[in-house]
Amino acid sequence: MKLGKVEFCHFLQLIALFLCFSGMSQAELSRSGSKPYFQSGRSRTKRSWVWNQFFVLEEYMGSDPLYVGKLHSDVDKGDGSIKYILSGEGASSIFIIDENTGDIHATKRLDREEQAYYTLRAQALDRLTNKPVEPESEFVIKIQDINDNEPRFLDGPYTAGVPEMSPVGTSVVQVTATDADDPTYGNSARVVYSILQGQPYFSVEPKTGVIKTALPNMDREAKDQYLLVIQAKDMVGQNGGLSGTTSVTVTLTDVNDNPPRFPRRSYQYNVPESLPVASVVARIKAADADIGANAEMDYKIVDGDGLGIFKIAVDKDTQEGIITIQKDLDFEAKTSYTLRIEAANKDADPRFLSLGPFSDTTTVKIIVEDVDEPPVFSAPLYPMEVSEATQVGNIIGTVAAHDPDSSNSPVRYSIDRNTDLERYFNIDANSGVITTAKSLDRETNAVHNITVLAMESQNPSQVGRGYVAITILDINDNAPEFAMDYETTVCENAQPGQVIQKVSAIDKDEPANGHQFYFSLTTDATNNHNFSLKDNKDNTASILTRRNGFRRQEQSVYYLPIFIVDSGSPSLSSTNTLTIRVCDCDADGVAQTCNAEAYVLPAGLSTGALIAILACVLTLLVLILLIVTMRRRKKEPLIFDEERDIRENIVRYDDEGGGEEDTEAFDMAALRNLNVMRDTKTRRDVTPEIQFLSRPTFKSIPDNVIFREFIWERLKEADVDPCAPPYDSLQTYAFEGNGSVAESLSSLDSISSNSDQNYDYLSDWGPRFKRLADMYGTGQESLYS
Hints:
Blueprint: H1 5-22, H2 24-27, E1 36-37, E2 45-46, E3 54-57, E4 66-70, E5 82-88, E6 95-97, E7 103-106, E8 117-126, E9 137-144, E10 158-163, E11 171-174, E12 192-197, E13 202-204, E14 210-213, E15 225-233, E16 243-253, E17 266-272, E18 280-284, E19 297-304, E20 310-315, E21 320-325, E22 336-345, E23 359-369, E24 376-377, E25 381-387, E26 395-398, E27 401-402, E28 411-415, E29 425-427, E30 433-436, E31 447-456, E32 463-473, E33 481-482, E34 488-491, E35 499-506, E36 518-521, E37 531-535, E38 540-545, E39 557-565, E40 573-585, E41 591-593, H3 607-633, H4 705-720, H5 770-776, H6 780-783
Parallel strand pairs: 3-9, 10-16, 17-23, 25-32, 34-40
Antiparallel strand pairs: 1-2, 4-7, 5-8, 6-7, 8-9, 11-14, 12-15, 13-14, 15-16, 18-21, 19-22, 20-21, 22-23, 24-27, 26-30, 28-31, 29-30, 31-32, 33-35, 35-38, 36-39, 37-38, 39-40, 40-41
Transmembrane segments: 599-628
Main location: membrane
Organism: Capra hircus
C-alpha cells in the first residue's frame, strides 16, 4: 500500500514516539554512585540522581500536551512530601512539570529549525520546609527532527551564458539548494538535483547541481536563449521527500561562426559629374549573422578601373562600406566605373574556418551623369607682372577658359569688382586680355589679387572663377629723406671736429640691389664756418662742428641743409634741413637748458622776486573780492525801524498761518480790507504771475491807520529794493489785494462774519484751493456739525 505525503509524515511521527517511550527508562532518575553530592557542613553524601538526555519529536500536532519524560528522586517515598520544580529555557512557557509526580510535558508545538535543544534545571524540594532534598541539576531536552522543510534555492532564479557551438558537457552554471532539516539525522537534508525543463539541450549533475550542455552545435542564430527548470528533492530523491524548484535562463553567447555575405552580387549607382571631392557615392553592407565584435568587418576595393578615383571605408556604427570620391569626375572623359569590393571579418575564429572563407565580394558599377558645368580656366592661378610706370591701357596678360561640356559654349570674361574696388584693371570680354585702367603705384599696393569671372554665353548662370596675381614692379620714383625727425643739439663748450649727430635716410622704393644713399651739404652750406658733414658710406652721415665758442646769446638755433641722393636710375635727390640748437651742457656733454631767454633773468629780477610779486598780487585780489562780497550783502532792514515796536508775522512760502486763533499779534480787523486804494509801484526786476483784478464790492470795516500805513510802506520798499527776497516770500493773513475775484481767502474773517456767501466756486480753481473748497463748500454745515 502506498502512503501519501501527509500519511508518511504521520507514520514517521508515530515511529519517533515509539522510540521515545521505549527509552523512557533511560530518561528516568536512577540511583548511581558515580558522582557525589556535597551538602553544607562536613558530612558527605552521595548524589541521589543522574540526568540523561530527553528527546522530543518536533511538530507534534496532538491536542494533549506531549509527554517528555519523568523526574524521580530516591528520597521520594511516594507520600507526597517531595515537590519537583523546573527552571531554565522554556520552563513554564513551553515545558511544565507535575510537582507531585515529576512528569514533564511540552505544551506547545516545537520546531527544531527554530531551536534544536533546550537546557533546563530540575530540583526536588521538601514540601514542608521548601528546602532542597537533592542538589539542582541541569539536563537537556533535544528536539528530534522530522522532514518538514523542503529544499530552497536561496540564489535563484539564475542567469548564465555559454558560447554557442560548445561541445557536450560544457559547464554552464552550478545551482545550490539548502534544506533546513537536520543533516545529521536521517536523509531529511540530503538533496538530489534533476532537470524538469530544458532537455535535451542541458543536463544537471544530481549531487553537485552543475548544469552542462547536452547537445553539440547549438546555434545562437537559430535560438539564443533557453529556460531551464531545476528541481532539488530531499530524502535522496525517494518517494515522500520534499522538493523545491528554480529557473535558470541560459543565453548562448556569440562566436564568429558566420562569414559576411553581400545580399546582391552587383550594385549600380548614378552620380553627377559635378559631385564634389570627398562626397559619398554609395553605401553597401554585407550581412553577418553574428553580433558585436564578431560582426565587424573591413571593406576594400580589390579590382576595377576606379581604384584612384574612389575609395571605400567602413562606418564603425553601422558596419557599412562607404564609397567616396577622391578625384573630380568628368563625364566627357569617362562615363562609368566598375569596382570589385571585398568584405571580410576582422577577427576570424580558426575553429570555424572549415565552414568556408570569412569574406565575400560584390561588383559596384558607377554611372557618371552629364551636367552643365561652368567654364574652366586653363590654370588655377595666373601670375603677372607690370611696371608701375606702365601707361594706362597697356596689356598686362591674358587668361583663358573653356566650356568643358560637349556643347562648348562661348565664354565671356569680366572682373569681380569686389576684388578690384579702385578699378585699376580692365579685361576684354571676348579675348580675356587684361589691361591697366589707372596709373599704378607700387608703394600704395605692391600686389593686386583679382578674380576673373568666365560665364557661358548660352547659360550665364554657369560662372567659372579664375585667379590672377598682378605684381607691380618698382621704379625709382621716390626721393630719399631723413629716416626720422632729428632733435640735434650742440653744446656751448663743444670742440671743433666733434660729432654732434648721425643721420640716416629712407626711400619708399625697393631697388633689386638695395639702397645706397649719398650725403652732402648743399652748395650754400658748404662754406659755412659752423658745421661740416661726413658721408660714412653706409647710408649714414655724421655732422661735425667746425669751431668752438657757440653762444646762445648770439645765436640759439642753426639750420643745416643736407643733400641726399639715391642710387636709382635715374637717381633722385632731396634736400632735408637739420635743426641744431645751442644748449648749456654739463661736464659730460649732457644738455641742461637750451632756452636763450634764460640769460635775460639775471639782468632784471630774480626768480624769488618774481614769486614775491606774484604773491602780493594774489593777496590784493583776495582782499578786493572780500570787500565786494561784504558790501553786496549789506542792506537796509526790511521789517521796521528802531523807533517802532510793531510785531508782524512773517512765514515762508507754502506754510500755513495760525488760522483763526492767531489774533494776539495785532488787531485783525485792520487787516481785513482797505478803504483807501493806493497806486502800487511794481518791481522792475520781477513780473508777478497773478494780475490783481478789481472787486465789485467792498465790506465797510473800521480803519486802522497804523497797520495800514506800515503794511503799505513795507510793501513799497520790498517792491523797489532789488536786493530783497522774491516778492512771493512775504505773506499777509487777510489781504489778497484790491479787486481779487476770490476776495479774501483768509479764515480770520469767519470769526465775526455772518456772511452766507457761496464758496462752491473754489472747487473749480484747481488742486491748490482744494482744502479751502472742502472747508467752505457745500459741506460746510456737516463739517462743523
